[in-house]
Amino acid sequence: MKVILTQDVVNLGEEGDVRVVKDGYARNYLLPTGAAVIYNKGNAAIFASRAAQIEKRKEEKRAEARSLKEKLDSLEIRIVVSAGESGKLFGSVTSQMVQEELKKAGFDIERKKIEVATHAIKMTGTYSVLVHLYENESSKVKLDVVSIEELKAQEKKAEEERKAREEEERRKAAEEEALKEAEDKAAEESKGETSESAENESVEE
Q1: Rounded mean pLDDT, 111-125
Q2: pLDDT at 82
Q3: Which helix (H) or strand (E) covers residue 129, if one does?
Q4: Whole-prediction pTM value?
Q5: What is the pLDDT of residues 45-80, one digit of tens each?
Q6: Burial 86-106 (b: 16+ CB within 10 A, else e)
Q7: Domain 2-49 has CATH 3.40.5.10
Q8: For the sheet containing 36-38, what is the strand order?
Q9: Is the domain defined by 71-151 classed in CATH 3.10.430.100?
Q10: Residue 171 vs residues 15, 157, 164: alpha-carbon distances, Å
Q11: 37: which residues sit within 8 A by CB, 6+ positions away?
């Protein structure tokens, strides 16, 4: 069936595009959801009259996609999973898991736009996840896959380092306080000696 898309449809086309799709796909999804209309002279004429408006919206989407790409390319997300001692995953990393982490980071991305090569992610480590944006624009988000055990070890190490820093700060503060007390005492003693010397000079006169 030949249709005209009334909105962007992932892996099919953008608003205003004419596509030939399977009848079932058109009748069961595209037409009922309003994502497309049947191609005929009337509908083609309507979309032709809206060409300038559609192109303006497309340009705005291109600009948004470029801006979003810059932000996503510099983003790193972490997913915590169950894994064996060797780092082999017990489960798999899914697009939904990635979508949830992206949302936590402030990016609301449709799950169907997220491409996770689950067959390639079998171990803990660092990977790249492809995120389709608009037209041919896409981004690669850095994905850090860590095990629960590894995360606990990292948290324990971080806590130990924090305590060590606090202890070092306390030690330095104590040393500085002791030094200040010694300087104050020396200054007080020096002041006393100066006062005593002045009194002796006054008596001699």
Answers
A1: 85
A2: 84
A3: strand 125-134
A4: 0.62
A5: 999 999 999 999 999 999 999 999 999 999 999 998
A6: eeebeeebebebbbebbeeee
A7: yes
A8: 18-20, 2-5, 36-38
A9: yes
A10: 67, 21, 10
A11: 3, 4, 6, 31, 43
